[in-house]
Write a structure and sequence with these properties.
20 helices; single chain; 411 residues; mainly alpha
Amino acid sequence: MDTAAAVEQAWRHESSRLVGALLRITRDLARAEDLAQEALAAALAQWPADGVPDNPGAWLMTTAKRRAIDQMRAGERQLRAYATLSADVAESYEERFEVDHVEDDALRLMFICCHPSLSDDTRTVLTLRLVAGLTTREIARAYLTSEATVATRISRAKRTLATANAAMEEPTGPERADRLASVMSVLYLLFNEGYAATAGVDWTRPALCAEAVRVAALLVAVVPSEPEPYGLLALLELQSSRLAARLDAAGEPVLLTEQDRGRWDRAAISRGQAALGAALALGGDGPYVLQAAIASEHARAPSVAQTDWPRIAALYERLARTTGSVVVELNRAVALGMAYGPQTGLALVDEIAGALPGYHLVPAVRGDLLERLGRFDDAAGEFEVAADLAGNERERALLRSRASKCRDQTL
């Protein structure tokens, strides 16, 4: 591995801990990130000449702390703060960053990124930047927008936190539960954007999925007594196991019913099953645990025909009761169609369609069920409507291809 790649890898794995620890020291999010970026720049300058250190994370942290001390000494207005903090800052990396403490720093950072004063979109962007360690360019690519737009959004988020005098400590009680739910929601949205991109030419973005899984694993490490983070990690691992099979050699989408299950990642499935087991052992029955249980049923089935569709339909029913989500009901319609026949699924789709206006998957699911009923002309029409509504180019092409095949059946 060359030094540039080593720096990038170290940043990916250490940035959340680095910024989180510096935040604890400086009590200033913008300053903490600036110090972390300065340490990164120093690594890019020094590692090619000096070699990659044995412990890259420790090197970055030591460098950032030294810069923090220098800045405190240089500012006369900060002398009082320095007198208070210098002994704390000067402690060795090994003493400051035992496992539990490192995890506390990362968790604190996640909670701050999901502060209630920020909008949902801003929380996601800030999490991608500070927790997942993505660059402004990478975030812009993920959101199909400009780097300037992303940079502005991040700067605005920092100002909002400063104006709100956002607490730099991990919240407790009900606020902690609310923030934890927000952190999980951000990771779930990040993963879904990688698993099925809402727009653009690529149907999947595996790098986004990998970042979501990595941060979800960190979240589990810092709140090991909570079942839902285990459920989220299980869900993301199980879903990510299918990524390679979701595209053919030409990069075109492959539906679940047509995927080569031999290409599913068995290691990811094993990790997902283990995380699900941990969630269930903790008594978990929340939305992420239920979704992971559904994904587990798919993972354990050797084929579509051998899948326990009645159980999946029952799990979706429980999930719908828990969340009140109409989208979950749409997924239940698919499972009902597989378990009890397409007419059963179609009845549920017709019942809920009015609650999801403009959602392209409603006509897509209806088209699939109509195709299975042999109503090919009607199915083609639904697939064409779905294609017109879809934002992703690959998915749009797939839907139009299905419409064309249904038209061919009517000739």
